[in-house]
Write a structure and sequence with these properties.
Structural class: alpha/beta
CATH superfamily: Alpha/Beta hydrolase fold, catalytic domain
Number of strands: 11
Helix content: 25-40%
Radius of gyration: 19 Å
Strand order of the largest sheet: 1-4-6-5-7-8-9-10-11
Number of helices: 13
Shape: globular
Order of helices and strands: HEEEEEHEHEHEHHHHHHHEHEHE
Number of domains: 1
Length: 370
């Protein structure tokens, strides 16, 4: 493993390949953000299917003020967990826990909230397909029924968390004042769907997967899934910059080592990717971007990476343009991994959360020494 001096060293693969992510730049004490759960008997999905024995994982930092006006919801990204998000609420980061009451949310299928990997009643592929909207509805139930938040200051999210942010502002337009979607989208494109489908097929083609009734851990399928992700996670320029030809065998070995190794994780990966593939916020609310945008009441900030090969930025830009919301381009060859350290993008978010009218379209560039 290379050191974390460069955020895109091999060590970062552990984070982006959905292994439990330690906070490399110092950790938030766990006693201040302990894992908590809200438990329901059943949770009905938009499809009509039901998840039995359902519970939602979450963590909180900060103190809710007397007006209950400083809450921020921060849902997890693909394969990520609430624990992984704590790094963004450390001193000097863009979520100031001395100012905000931050609720870090475990999305359905992340292995913490009820998922194919941990469900006793509906294990593995017996677990029903769910959507990004279902994630949002489960989080709303937690926020209102358990935390008694009738309104929040903002919803923020990165990647699949950004997708949830788009769902939030359209499905529940009066619930928040602001929203920030970083590398998210309101709609999966054909390019996105091909990428996610390829990863799912990589798992399904492993003989050990056995059509969703595993005879053992689908290790080779999960390793191939990791290779596919890493190939798209950054640009060709970034691959050339970070990995010399002679180091390729070490990269491949690291990808295999750090990928998931059990059937439960494989089922989680498949179901969350299916949720992303089915993402189409406009179709949920009339069929067009204009109809979806017409529902929005919150102030929105969109941040995208032009070279993102994981989440195509086109729908997010189109949505923001129709809404008249600011778009900040993160100009970096790091691609979808940009938000994990290639560009310091927190300052506009801090500014936006304090005064949304002060943030306008802009481009942030990669630091010269990266």
């Amino acid at each position: 493993m290379l050191a974390m001096k460069n955020p895109y060293s091999l060590a970062l693969i552990t984070m982006v390949l959905f292994v439990s992510m330690s906070v490399a730049f110092g950790q938030v004490p766990t006693e201040k953000a302990a894992q908590q759960f809200a438990t329901y008997d059943d949770f009905k999905l938009q499809s009509g299917a039901v998840i039995h024995g359902f519970r939602v994982g979450y963590r909180t930092l900060g103190t809710l003020n007397s007006e209950k006006s400083n809450a921020i919801l921060f849902p997890s990204w693909l394969g990520g967990k609430s624990e992984d998000l704590l790094r963004f609420a450390q001193p000097g980061q863009w979520l100031d826990a001395s100012k905000y009451y931050v609720v870090f949310l475990d999305a359905i299928g992340d292995g913490i909230t009820t998922s194919p990997s941990n469900s006793q009643a509906q294990p593995l592929m017996e677990f029903p397909e769910f959507t990004i909207r279902d994630m949002v509805e489960s989080e709303l139930r937690l926020a209102t029924d358990v935390l008694h938040l009738t309104h929040v200051h903002a919803v923020v999210g990165i990647s699949m968390g950004g997708m949830q942010a788009f769902e939030w502002i359209v499905a529940h337009p009066d619930y928040m004042d602001q929203a920030v979607a970083v590398e998210g989208s309101p709609q999966s494109t054909s390019a996105d769907m091909l990428f996610w489908t390829t990863q799912i097929h990589a798992i399904e083609l492993d003989p050990a997967w056995n059509h969703g009734k595993p005879t053992g851990p689908p290790i080779s399928g999960l390793a191939l899934e990791s290779e596919i992700f890493w190939n798209n996670a950054t640009s060709s320029a970034q691959h050339l910059r970070e990995t010399k030809t002679k180091d390729f065998p070490a990269l491949l070995a690291t990808l295999a080592k750090e990928s998931a190794h059990d059937a439960g994780a494989a089922a989680d990966h498949i179901r969350q990717r299916q949720a992303i593939m089915n993402l189409d916020v406009p179709a949920e609310f009339g069929g067009t971007i204009e109809q979806a945008v017409a529902r929005v009441r919150a102030k929105l900030l969109v941040m995208v990476v032009p070279e993102d090969l994981v989440v195509n930025p086109t729908p997010a830009i189109a949505f923001a343009t129709k809404l008249g919301a600011p778009v900040i381009l993160l100009d970096s060859p790091c691609g979808h991994l940009t938000a994990l350290g290639c560009i310091a993008f927190g300052a506009p978010i801090v500014q936006f959360l304090a005064d949304p009218s002060s943030v306008h379209d802009a481009t942030l560039h990669e630091a010269p020494n990266q």
